[in-house]
């Protein structure tokens, strides 16, 4: 029995927000590119605290809900993380994919491939890099909680829930747990798959809005290939009614990476098509990073369906091309 009257439940998510139902709730989001943290005391008004004051020397993104899942090293020790990682810093991105040994994206997706090569340079293993990043994120989260509850360590016990990709192998799950424990988190950690976490969060959100209707219940008969049986159908009042005859559905499941990083890749290919491969490859790495940063926080986040909308980003190091709207180190594109 814990000596604490309540507990802090921490959810570390590599994808979608998870919902947990006990005492003080903390959600740490760690998708491939960005991480986020929210927490709330599950009692009284249950006000959720969403951390959006991440360390940022430029202050450009100081009020963003998420922080980049990036970390850089000097002499084998963590130097910068999140927004503090500069354009000229050699940093890890998408390093979580390296927890899955022999993952196909290690050789086919550039950020993953670069991070894999960087492991040798800093003399670290993937789970050690993940641990260093999670440690910095965890320490920042604890500091944030302490601002609102100065004596929380005396009042609340700590319990951690981690979300992992649905297709994660047992070995990758073990490395995830190892990284979290190395980061200083409690040893009693539970894993939850991302789809399950997303479903729980959605159900909780919709229930709060009284928007849940006609639930259908299924029985999982077999996992691989997946086979489910429809067991009950909702009556519109959230009271499942058993079916006399159950319908079965069988399918094989698979999984892979998806996300905004592929938008980045396609945008880079689009720009390369305009200026030509040789000229694009001659652009300094720092200038490419500046261009992609403007795309990340400008075009990608303000894009809408208007067909006549134009956008501009810095494109230094290429010749002016009035035909393709490349003028004075800037390219204007239509989406």
Produce a short descriptive summary:
This protein is 33% helix and 26% strand. It has 335 residues and is of the alpha+beta class. Strands 1, 2, 3, 4, 5, 9 and 10 form a seven-stranded mixed beta sheet that branches.
Describe the overall structure:
With 335 residues, the protein is of the alpha+beta class. 33% of the residues lie in helices and 26% in strands. It is built from nine helices and 17 strands. Strands 1, 2, 3, 4, 5, 9 and 10 form a seven-stranded mixed sheet that branches. Helix 3 crosses helix 5 and helix 7 crosses helix 9.
CA radius of gyration: 23 Å
Report the biggest beta sheet as strand number plus sense, adding barrel if it closes. 7 strands, mixed
Q: Using the alpha-carbon principal axes, give the shape.
A: globular
Figure out the total of helices: 9
Distance between the termini: 59 Å
Strand content: 25-35%
Total DSSP E strands: 17
Mean pLDDT: 78
**What level of helicity do the residues show?**
25-40%
Uncertain residue segments: 15-23, 234-245
Structural class: alpha+beta
């Amino acid at each position: 029995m814990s000596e604490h009257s309540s507990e802090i439940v921490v959810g570390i998510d590599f994808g979608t927000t998870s919902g947990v139902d006990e005492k003080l709730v903390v959600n740490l989001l760690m998708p491939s590119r960005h991480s986020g943290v929210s927490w709330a005391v599950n009692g009284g008004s249950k006000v959720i605290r969403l951390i959006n004051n991440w360390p940022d020397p430029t202050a450009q993104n100081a009020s963003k809900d998420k922080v980049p899942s990036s970390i850089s090293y000097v002499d084998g020790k963590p130097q910068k993380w999140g927004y503090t990682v500069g354009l000229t810093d050699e940093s890890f991105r998408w390093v979580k994919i390296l927890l899955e040994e022999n993952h196909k994206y290690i050789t086919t997706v550039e950020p993953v491939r670069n991070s894999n090569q960087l492991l040798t340079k800093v003399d670290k293993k993937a789970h050690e890099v993940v641990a260093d990043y999670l440690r910095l994120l965890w320490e920042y989260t604890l500091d944030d909680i302490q601002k609102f509850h100065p004596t929380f360590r005396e009042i609340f016990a700590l319990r951690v829930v981690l979300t992992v990709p649905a297709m994660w192998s047992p070995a990758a799950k073990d490395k995830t747990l190892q990284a979290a424990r190395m980061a200083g988190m409690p040893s009693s950690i539970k894993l939850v798959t991302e789809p399950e976490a997303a479903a729980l969060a959605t159900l909780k959100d919709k229930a709060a809005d009284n928007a849940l209707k006609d639930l259908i219940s299924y029985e999982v008969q077999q996992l691989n290939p997946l086979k489910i049986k429809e067991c009950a159908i909702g009556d519109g009042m959230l009271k499942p009614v058993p079916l006399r005859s159950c319908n079965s559905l069988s399918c094989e499941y698979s999984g892979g990476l998806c996300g905004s990083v592929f938008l980045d890749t396609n945008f880079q290919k689009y720009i390369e098509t305009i200026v030509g491969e040789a000229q694009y490859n001659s652009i300094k790495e720092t200038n490419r990073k500046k261009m992609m940063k403007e795309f990340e926080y400008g075009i990608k986040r303000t894009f809408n369906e208007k067909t006549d909308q134009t956008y501009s980003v810095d494109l230094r190091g290429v010749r002016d091309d009035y035909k393709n709207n490349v003028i004075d180190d800037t390219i204007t594109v239509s989406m």
